[in-house]
Write the structure tokens for this entry.
Amino acid sequence: MDPKVLIVEGGSDRKRLLPILAEPVEIICTNGTISPYHIEELLEPYENQDLFVFMDADASGDSIRKLFKQLYPEAKHLYTDRLYRQVEKTPNKVLAGVLIAANFKVHPKYLAGGINE
């Protein structure tokens, strides 16, 4: 089975999510604002896999998310609370909850009552 593909904005988001995940997941970084061509080129090797888009809750994240909705309407979108604004600033237990809701496996120590930061 091919791993899920999680698309995030930057390397700090990737570093934040990797230890929480308890399954192999390919995490792709867009590294900020990108063009439709760049998105298609970036995701070409993963076109037959489940795509998950997890962007920051800010203008840049909203802009990238809009492109993904146009180019990959089948992609599933994960959201952090606007209170935290950035994936990397979101507490681990909140990230774990978002990932579980999207059917990702997470390490139990990151669930409520576990590691917060």
User: Anything to note?
Assistant: The two ends are 31 Å apart (CA to CA). The chain is about 30% helix and 15% strand. The mean pLDDT is 90. Residues 59-71 form the longest helix (13 residues).
